[in-house]
Amino acid sequence: MNDAPAITTVPVKLGDRSYDILIGAGLIDRAGAAIASRAGSVRVAIVSDETVAALHLDRLTRSLSGAGIDSTPILVTAGEKSKGFATLEAVTNAILAARLERGDVVIAFGGGVIGDLAGFAAGIARRGMRFIQMPTSLLAQVDSSVGGKTGINTAHGKNLVGVFYQPQLVLADTDVLDTLTPREFRAGYAEVAKYGLIDRSDFFAWLEKNWRGIFDGGPERTEAIAVSCQSKADVVARDEKETGDRALLNLGHTFGHALETATNYDSARLVHGEGVSIGIVLAHQFSTKMNLASQDDAGRVEAHFRQVGLPVSIGDIPGELPSAEKLMDYIAQDKKVARGALTFILTRGIGQAFIAKDVPPSAVLSFLQEKHPT
Amino acid sequence: MNDAPAITTVPVKLGDRSYDILIGAGLIDRAGAAIASRAGSVRVAIVSDETVAALHLDRLTRSLSGAGIDSTPILVTAGEKSKGFATLEAVTNAILAARLERGDVVIAFGGGVIGDLAGFAAGIARRGMRFIQMPTSLLAQVDSSVGGKTGINTAHGKNLVGVFYQPQLVLADTDVLDTLTPREFRAGYAEVAKYGLIDRSDFFAWLEKNWRGIFDGGPERTEAIAVSCQSKADVVARDEKETGDRALLNLGHTFGHALETATNYDSARLVHGEGVSIGIVLAHQFSTKMNLASQDDAGRVEAHFRQVGLPVSIGDIPGELPSAEKLMDYIAQDKKVARGALTFILTRGIGQAFIAKDVPPSAVLSFLQEKHPT
Hints:
The structure is a homodimer. Chain A has helices spanning about 30-40, 50-65, 85-95, 110-125, 140-145, 180-200, 200-215, 220-240, 255-260, 270-290, 295-310, 325-335, 360-370, and strands at about 10, 20-25, 45-50, 70-75, 105-110, 130-135, 150-155, 155-160, 170-175, 335-340, 340-345, 355-360. With about 375 residues, chain A is of the alpha/beta class. A seven-stranded mixed beta sheet of chain A has the order 1-2-9-6-5-3-4, with helices on both faces. A three-stranded antiparallel beta sheet of chain A has the order 10-11-12. The interface of A and B includes residues 89, 92, 124, 149 and 157 of A. Chains A, B: Catalyzes the conversion of 3-deoxy-D-arabino-heptulosonate 7-phosphate (DAHP) to dehydroquinate (DHQ). Chains A, B: Its EC number is 4.2.3.4. Chains A, B: InterPro entries: Dehydroquinate_synthase, DHQ_synth_AroB, DHQ_synth_fam, DHQS/DOIS_N, DHQS_C.
């Protein structure tokens, strides 16, 4: 291991539930050793999807068995449709069928869907198993694998059912990102840029200059992932259960979720990160309309997202969409509603996002009608 | 309220998740005031079953609306079969359909099944709503409503899927116990006696003398419920997530769960408390066989349970049962298995239960073959 590539460690500080995020090249091959040194003699269930498994599962299984760890794969169909009660039940039953005990480990090996689904199953099987995240998409590495939110979707909306359940370790292998399609990579990039837009204007400026290195797999990639994880870890440490500041991480997500609902989670039309990209641009434009942010800042965000190839407007989504009024209904049903007043993450400019708790629904509707005339 | 009957309060001390158990007559009629004074202006979903709802729901709804609290009833079929993924999904969706927000309240209004199911749904809907237990069976009042264990059954066994989720308040109305069948009341009594057998031999001796008052609704009833809740609260405060002492509460439950599985949770043949009754007697007899406890103590437990009308042997269960070998399989699949060695709650005598982590499966099997020859 002397010439093994360097690993960046980001600690997540949550008292007796603290854990490390390890970021670097070749981490799949080192997973067995990393898990054995932390968890000792355990058995493992690897929850993954068919796409990720075809590319990387053999390598992970070999790494685990090399460290004396037996593993059982539990595979689900790739895509957002697996984030529902039916698949949750199947995965949970598969963990029980493998006769794993409370001290054994569930690994989420995949993108955001797998992390949310496997984390939820790990949180409820035997009322909580050990849980390790091995995110394989950029989005999962910088966002969903960190912070302990797990969940599934229902007819009532996205992520409305789940538990807060922290992993004991996150292993982010930066090599696997080379197997993503450009579209998937870009979608994850929207969440990277989000951290700059929330409260790190210098990071956003750095991204404007260095984004090509991130996309091309240069050293900027690991740096961008580490800054993103650190940003998220800081927020989660302050407010694990989202009673306050953590809501800032939802910048762009209220609009984004509504658009995902409107496209029925059809990934051919819109994936989560693309919804967030459009949502972030809309949040900046709406902030401008509310006289909170300058037109220049909103334009800068839109220009950067467009430059990297992300969709930036509702019109960029292929196919028919429901009316502005219907989109408004989806927003009202979103979980960030409190007592009839809408809570939105708005901004005073690049890196100056804030939680607005009293946004008039009529203002949102009129903004949507303007952006999405029918 | 000047001549309202006295209420006994038992505090459960769990740091920032501490809560009170209120025990007394007429608490349903006082629920609205009790909830409004603690939770303020909230909306409520009442999860209940058709049997309990027919008897008591109107009174609860009136009490809530008298305090200005709107409520939505969510009714499920009575019985253990409702403790599964399908009903969990239905209840969770009904909470979302009622558009309850995170700060709103889910009330579990029923016996142990309702408490486990509604608590699980409250723990996962919006990643955790406010939760209040209003147990209507003796078993739920003295056991399942206290301590935060929630869960459902799967084909792999009982309560293998769930979350630890503490209520914010428990309201135990002792009047409602008069509407239980004698059989249901007796089943709950097995859990009351269990506390004496774990570590309060004086309480067990008091029960041997005073059980008739408990069954007849005398002042002994409230006292027995309060002692039971206090016993459970003490254990839970020491070990909320069952990494140690809390397992003592499973006295009789390993055998009991196996018998419930063997009867396919058919309440016509065996209800939970009856399984626990037989299980407790078996645990004492097995402890005698292992030369840990005296024959006299085991006989005293069996005699008392028989005296109150509880089943005390496998042969007391009506209908055909699987073989001893099959019962052993169910035990091995139970969650209290660690690394191949069986963990059992055994005893050195009345009030001297302990956690035995190294019970040889062969000894259990031979004991079962003796008690249940085929």
